[in-house]
Amino acid sequence: MKVLMVCLGNICRSPLAEGILQSKVDHLQLGWEVDSCGTSGFHNGELPDSRSIEVAQNHQIDITSQRSRKLQTQDLAEFDLILAMDSSNYADIIKLAQNEEQRSKVHLILNFLYHGQNRAVPDPYYEGGFESVFEMINQACDQIVAKYS
Ligand code: 4NP
Predict the structure, then answer these.
(1) pLDDT band at 144 (very low <50, low <70, confident <90, very high)
(2) How far is the CA of 92 from the centre of ligand 1 (A)?
(3) Which of 9, 18, 86, 145 makes a 20 to 30 Å CA pair with 139?
């Protein structure tokens, strides 16, 4: 199973999502591949935001080996599950999909926790709230592991 976490900048939310799911995958020895990217490319090559690094560290998760990269068309072919943090990310991912099979891989991550509600992981870049972002992604990742493992 190959899972791709997607947000706008790939420096705040999706690096946390990658780190959280990777830690569960490691713990349970699931052998899944986990990656993250951004729809924008604004922060290409950058480390995660220091506030994401800190909140992850507080939960014994190291995300400092991650570097921001932009979503590519090829990602829709390569990954099995593509998880958007909000509806804007979702729409940008769907634009790159070339067929129904690819479209069917794309989901809002919080729909695994709150089925059918289309809730967003709020963008913490300006407003903060990194701990709350961590908690909601963590709960969603527990559901994802339960569903696919
Ligand atoms: P992210 O947060 O999408 O969770 O990585 C953002 C990071 C940077 C910007 C916006 C959102 N930005 O506009 O630079």
Answers:
(1) very high
(2) 14
(3) 9
In this prediction, residue 3 carries a pLDDT of 99
Q: What is the pTM of this model?
A: 0.98
Q: Which of 89, 125, 137 to probe ligand 1 with, by most ligand atoms within 8 A of CB?
A: 125
Query: What domains sit in the chain, N to C, each tagged with a CATH number?
Result: 2-148 (3.40.50.2300)
Residue whose CA lies nearest to ligand 1 atom number 13: 9
Residue type, 86: D
As for ligand 1, residues whose beta carbon falls within 6 Å of it are 7-13, 38, 42, 123, 125
Q: What is the pLDDT of residues 49-107, one digit of tens each?
A: 999 999 999 999 999 999 999 999 999 999 999 999 999 999 999 999 999 999 999 99
What's the rounded mean pLDDT across residues 104-114? Answer: 98
Sequential DSSP letters for 28-92: HT---EEEEEESS-TTTTPPPPHHHHHHHHHTT---TT----B--HHHHHH-SEEEESSHHHHHH
